Amino acid sequence: QVQLVESGGGLVQAGGSLRLSCAASGRTFSTYTMGWFRQAPGKEREFVGAISWRTGNPYYADSVKGRFTISRDNAKNTVYLQMNSLKPEDTAVYYCAADRGLRPVDGYDYWGQGTQVTVSS
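RE: above sequence
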């Protein structure tokens, strides 16, 4: 069982930056791929990116590639989502998730409660 708690959301102007954090419980954090998803009002939840437990390499959706960076600190059981050059269309509730797969983009096993990110124009 893994419990996830996101933090760091808020209101930012277009072009600004935010860093989200996701703290995980448990002693096996390093064996989970950690993903970030988002859901905008009236839209389906979409994959943002993830960082593999096995390689430590992140991978991203095309919509955020070059602007967002995912990193993890296994000693702190925490994964981060650094968001730069934010756009109004990035406005959404952001969720972190954990999965035992190597490079999953869906079907994650555990989810956080989400944190709101609002980008004003």
